[in-house]
Design brief:
Elements: E1 5-10, E2 14-19, E3 32-37, H1 39-49, E4 54-61, H2 64-75, E5 79-86, E6 93-96, E7 106-109, H3 125-129, E8 131-137, H4 144-159, E9 163-167, H5 191-200, E10 206-210, H6 211-217, H7 223-231, E11 237-241, E12 247-250, E13 262-264, H8 277-290, H9 295-310, H10 322-329, H11 342-351, E14 360-364, H12 369-378, H13 383-400, E15 408-412, H14 415-426, E16 431-435, H15 453-457, E17 464-470, H16 477-496, E18 501-506, H17 518-528, E19 535-538, H18 543-556, E20 562-566, H19 572-583, E21 588-593, H20 595-606, H21 612-633
Parallel strand pairs: 1-4, 1-8, 2-6, 4-5, 8-9, 9-10, 10-11, 14-15, 14-21, 15-16, 16-17, 17-18, 18-19, 19-20, 20-21
Antiparallel strand pairs: 2-3, 6-7, 11-12, 12-13
Helix pairs in contact: 1-8, 6-7, 8-9, 10-11, 13-14, 13-21, 17-18, 19-21, 20-21
Amino acid sequence: MTRTLDVICLGRAAVDLYGHQVGGRLEDMQSFAKYLGGSSGNLAAGLARLGIRSSMLTRVGNEHMGRFVREALQKEGVDVSHVGTDPSRLTGLVLLGISGPDAFPHIFYRENCADMALGLEDFDEAYIASSRALAITGTHVSTAGTYAVVQQAIAFARANGTRVVLDIDYRPVLWGLVPAGGGEERYVPSREASERIQGLMPDCDLVVGTEEEIQIAGADSDTLTALINIRARTDAVIVLKRGPLGCSVFDGAIPGSLDEGISAPGVKVEVLNVLGAGDAFLSGFLAAWLRDESWETCARHGNACGALVVSRHGCTPAMPSRLELEDYLSRADQVPRPDLDARLNHLHRASNRPQTQAPMFILAFDHRRQLEELVVSTRPPAEKISRFKSLVAEALLQVSDGVDGSGRLGLIVDERYGEHVLNRLTAEGWWIGRPVEVPGSCPLEFDPRNSMGLPLQGWPASHVVKCLVYYHPDDPIELRLEQEKRVKALHDDCVALDRELLLEVIATASGQTCGDETVANVMRRFYNLGVYPAWWKLESQSSEGWSNISQVIERYDPLCRGVLLLGLDAPLAALSESFRVAAAHPVCKGFAVGRSIFGAAARQWFGGEMDDETVISSVAERYREVISVWQGASSSTWAPR
């Protein structure tokens, strides 16, 4: 039969709150990063990043964290059609810290949580039958209610040829065997846990666990004996995770030693955080297994995924993409510190970014200096700039009601005069760029401070960091070096805080001659410095200029989201010609235009010659015109990266 899914992940989906202060006690944490978590949630996301069609079977609360979990899964490409909303229970939370090389304290807040209320009414046989595999975790064996749910899901799977994967995932604290602060504890013998896990064994095709988990499943403190006990109950392939030693696969009779299984050695890597390594291992192993790879390949992929995740902060966000995994596998012995490898880190960021619809129709009204000059010349109060930006935002919203699905609208606006616009539209999910440069500064200065790390940390994660830099290859060397230093520092801050950077380059401001190679050479220089913007925002180019830009991006960063064309207050006729040339090159994904749309209205409004409603209608009309010009110029189709 045709299967629309590869794996259904039944179990925990929660919120991980990871302490930022690595090396400190959990008691001393001052701030936390919020990630998608839960073993099944991690697995579903990890598989999706590796190109596997995964689906999540769980419940979340009817609250903000529940919506976060569902949206985070969806952004990763996981099917969420069976992520139910519990009307009364809260989404599970975990507080985690990295206190030292072997200390990873964590506290589960899961009492009466939503995913443990998963019921028989949350799925049916057709759903289970739609998948090639069903992956379940030990947590959902820990209560009578969820155990019954797991048994029914397995029964549907066996009846429809869906393979069953059991991740033992034994957490004594979730069985009530240790105090709430004992989240790190991994081995506490429990007859009840052993018997329940063993009750599922006959119907499993694959059983995965660490040595401690295998000992629980096999009801013996000796790993080899425990494996023999498991084999007596099931013909399933058994995968033993052995940490730094790698893993061993037992397909058939259990041999005389652990080393006699089908083994793949571990990958040597410096460990930051072991939490999530098991989920990463299983993601890599199952992705290869579902592609019918050999056991050796499955094990190698699982080990590599685990090695990548232990070197990073967090669980789900640390999971590799398929492209990243392939690159790492090709040179793993040369990368003892994946977290410090520039190529891997760029692949991780770029290949795991959510897709963006294009073409992009961006209304840029982050202008500060130009509007301040209007205030000075016409003498209204400075608050009028904020008021004007509200009117432009209203025009944007007016246009959004009538645009079809052939493109995405967005905005670039500043905090100084547009904070109210940012607050309003961020919650509505708009694409938003936000400037960091002091207007007109050359050498580049940042607002509010030249070290942007702390200010950026206070931004919503969805905001794109927009920076305008004046740069020409023939500028004085001292100026170029200063510009490069500032841009590199900003890029590094964006990487550290997982923010997208839109780098706007204007080469014509200094009056230097610009040819077909000028901007491409500027981009090449920044790439060679290790600056990889998610977006470029560039001036109009000749067709040859666009070809050169395309070649630079293809060589240095084919995962770049692309180029947005700026306007520089050009009249509509000039914009039309620049759009015609740019749209013929797929690297150009749309425009980010400002004064060409609102400039005339601004001059009249600040001069007292236009009322509010006329500003809104005038800007909206001009915005529609510019969108129409782009649509008329573009005949190519766009494929999201």
